[in-house]
TrEMBL record:
It is a multi-pass membrane protein. Pfam families: MMPL. Gene3D superfamilies: Multidrug efflux transporter AcrB transmembrane domain. It is found in: Cell membrane. Keywords: Cell membrane, Membrane, Transmembrane, Transmembrane helix. Residues 207-339 form the SSD domain. This is MMPL family transporter. The chain crosses the membrane at residues 185-203, 210-234, 240-261, 289-310, 316-345, 370-390, 531-549, 561-579, 599-622, 643-662, 668-691. Coiled coil: none annotated. It comes from the Bacteria. SUPFAM superfamilies: Multidrug efflux transporter AcrB transmembrane domain. Belongs to the resistance-nodulation-cell division (RND) (TC 2.A.6) family. MmpL subfamily. It comes from Actinomadura luzonensis.
Length: 721
């Protein structure tokens, strides 16, 4: 075929082969530029807050700040008396001096303590050894965690002969999470690269053939981070997205490179010249890679419908690394093959055989498709069954390892304080407030199970009774507000249920509920409410991509069902391990009995896209054989023989890239690594090797509906051989 005719991808392959020197020179220059941009992007990543913009809690916080100059504390200082109790005069004087010093910091809007708020019991530990200083630091997450806290915390926690001071609170917990997540990446990559090289060498049996896919993965990672540097100008990107970028970039870069190299080897084995082999690889494998990349990007893009910067950042990261993988596989790799493709070919050419393990497995499966497919499906359903016990909760300091300073601080607060003053539900009025209505409302709120105390302009209340004057001036302004302080037990058990109970108390005047527990409740509700929309869009866009590739309506339905099954296994593993605590000793995390909904939703989109990656590759090989023979059974057996070894190798390497994050110290990173690794392994083995051939055998000619049936060509076309 002429280099000037044929499909566009074939012409692209010939062009890249002819101009390989120029392409490689441009690729090297581009890599350097991308590396500089990527290096600049990493320090600018942040950890977005778990908040729902426009929600009731978000509006409440805005009203508290505007009308009362107050809000939820961002930083908590745990003050411990080295001698005596926090009520000793010398300790009190030192505590007041600390509070004033913190309040004077230019980044602090408000600071109060046990000693400056009239000694409330909620800010004093039961044994009297500890007291709290609560600090509000306004600004976005990047400013608070990147500018104010790094300066403030070391000064505030310096301590004295009388006081030991430790830092905690939500902002400090997540500030400490960022460097740990980055360390997790470095540790994981030190494991991934050598193991990936070994696996690739075992599969390819050539050093160059093992190195080139890794280099393609590195290029995909660097391009992905470089693209994120541009996104950072208009959007906030979570530091956790770095882990996804690097794991997916390496895995997809290797996968796509393997697809192209495998096809280059096949074209070369048929006697094609170097340029023709490159063109054939780009024409056939390139189409598969394009559809695969489009599928992965489409499944991640549905995260944009969620109004949360934390989850949207993963969509940006995933799309960026897909682009990086496509550039590496379809533009740079063909030039490498044209320049040094001989080093990637097998040392001894092996004639293609009709049999082999995967061909024989496909034949056995298709002889008894109901039995084998039914057993495989039953096994996966059993593995997915823990998902039925899923309980959504909220993340806290226990995402960090036990030795983390902020977690140790929070553990002392949970253990020693009767209530969580810093995590109060704040009810702010929305209109005129009858003065006589505040006290009865505060008393009713104090009777809610799990509420330790209610502070208001009418005084403090507990158990329905007024217990003291409190600090009335704190709640006066344009209207009023109330602080509903939960008990430590209620906050640890189910803060979302507590918020629902507080909101259910009929208010005598319109109110908005804010504060940290309400923010978490609104964040969780927003995610769960949008979950059906996310799943529907994910299924719809990937269905459309597969239909464009196969021109069949049945195959996308089959692929969707199988991928949902693999997602069920992944979800079951998350519940069994991270919710219920199985393997917590081995993996080194602390289970809380619930899962934060944001991470499973993220993983559903990532795993679904990656599972479709292998579905696209296998279907492309099967369809190619079907177009040649018109026999579905033979096409499935031949497609599995040619595609399954590569899918298994690629899936193993991709699973390894994510499984390495099981060694992470941050639980979120562990969940991402373990969950995706399980989904990829199940998909690349049981689903592709057993369920795909059994279902396609059962469907027969319906697989290709509504396309016209292909004419049967060749002997023995009615059964797989």
């Amino acid at each position: 075929m002429s280099t000037r005719t044929g499909p566009p991808l074939r012409r692209l392959g010939f062009f890249l082969a002819r101009r390989h020197r120029a392409v490689l020179a441009l690729a090297l220059l581009g890599f350097v530029v991308a590396g500089v941009l990527a290096a600049g992007a990493v320090p600018r990543l942040s950890l977005a807050r778990f908040e729902a913009p426009g929600s009731e809690s978000d509006r409440a916080q805005a009203e508290l700040a505007r009308r009362f100059g107050t809000g939820s504390p961002d930083l908590v200082l745990l003050v411990t008396a080295r001698r005596g109790t926090v009520d000793d005069p010398a300790v009190e004087a030192a505590g007041r001096e600390l509070t004033a010093r913190v309040a004077g910091d230019p980044g602090v809007a408000e600071a109060a303590s046990y000693w400056t708020r009239g000694r409330p019991a909620t800010l004093r530990s039961g044994d009297g050894r500890h007291a709290l200083v609560v600090v509000r630091v306004p600004g976005d997450a990047g400013h608070v965690r990147g500018v104010v806290l790094p300066r403030l915390v070391p000064r505030a926690t310096a301590g004295t002969d009388l006081l030991e001071v430790r830092a905690g609170g939500g902002e400090e917990v997540f500030r400490e999470t960022v460097p740990l997540a980055r360390q997790d990446f470095v540790r994981a990559e030190l494991v991934i690269f050598p193991l990936a090289f070994v696996l690739l060498w075992l599969y390819q049996r050539r050093v160059a053939a093992a190195l080139v896919p890794i280099l393609a993965g590195v290029l995909a990672m660097v391009i992905g981070l470089a693209l994120l540097s541009g996104v950072l100008a208009v959007a906030e990107i979570s530091t956790f997205a770095l882990n996804l970028t690097l794991a997916m970039g390496l895995g997809l870069g290797i996968d796509y490179c393997l697809f192209v190299v495998q096809r280059f080897r096949e074209e070369s084995a048929r006697g094609a010249g170097r340029a023709a082999a490159v063109a054939g690889a780009v024409e056939h494998a390139g189409r598969t890679v394009l559809f695969s990349g489009l599928t992965v990007a489409a499944s991640l893009s549905v995260l944009f419908v969620l109004p949360f910067a934390f989850l949207r950042s993963f969509a940006w990261a995933g799309i960026a690394v897909v682009i990086g993988g496509l550039v590496a596989a379809l533009l740079v790799l063909p030039a490498v093959l044209a320049a040094a493709g001989g080093a990637l070919l097998p040392r001894r050419a092996r004639p293609e055989r009709e049999g082999g393990f995967w061909h024989a497995l496909a034949v056995r499966v298709m002889r008894r498709p109901l039995l084998t497919g039914g057993l495989a499906a039953a096994l996966l359903l059993v593995l997915a069954s823990p998902f039925l016990g899923l309980r959504f909760g909220v993340a806290d300091d226990r995402i960090l390892p036990p030795e983390a300073s902020s977690r140790q601080t929070q553990e002392v607060i949970r253990r020693s304080f009767p209530a969580e003053e810093s995590d109060a539900v704040q009810l702010v009025s929305r209109g005129p407030v009858p003065a006589a209505a505040v006290a009865p409302y505060a008393a009713s709120l104090s009777r809610v199970p799990g509420v330790a105390q209610v502070d208001s302009a009418a005084g403090s209340f507990a158990g329905g009774r007024r217990t003291g004057d409190g600090d009335p001036a704190r709640f006066r302004g344009e209207g009023t507000w109330l602080s509903v302080v939960p008990s430590a037990a209620a906050l640890a058990d189910d803060p979302v249920r507590l918020v629902a109970a507080v909101r259910a108390v009929p208010p005598p005047f319109p109110v908005l509920a804010g504060g940290y527990p309400a923010e978490l409740a609104d964040y969780r509700a927003s995610i769960v409410d949008r979950l059906p929309l996310v799943l529907a869009l994910m299924l719809a866009v990937t269905f459309a991509v597969l239909f464009l590739m196969t021109r069949s309506l049945v195959l996308p339905v089959k692929a969707t069902l199988l991928n949902v099954l693999s997602l069920g296994v992944m979800s079951g593993a998350l519940v069994w391990i991270f919710q219920d605590g199985n393997l917590s000793g081995l993996l080194g995390f602390t289970p809380t009995g619930t899962l934060d909904p944001s991470i499973p939703i993220l993983m559903l989109c990532v795993a679904y896209g990656l599972s479709m990656d292998y579905e696209v590759f296998l279907l492309s090989r099967i369809k190619e054989e079907y177009d040649r023979t018109g026999d579905t059974a033979r096409a499935v057996a031949a497609g599995l023989r040619r595609g399954a070894p590569l899918i298994t190798a690629a899936g193993g390497i991709l699973a390894l890239s994510f499984a390495a994050y099981a060694t992470a110290e941050v639980t979120f990173v562990q969940m991402l690594g373990v969950g995706i690794a399980v989904a990829v392994l199940v998909d690349a083995t049981v689903i592709r090797a057993v369920l795909v051939p059994s279902l396609m055998r059962l469907a027969g000619p319906l697989n290709w509906w509504p396309s016209s049936p292909r004419p049967v060509t060749g002997p023995g076309s009615t059964t797989a051989r």
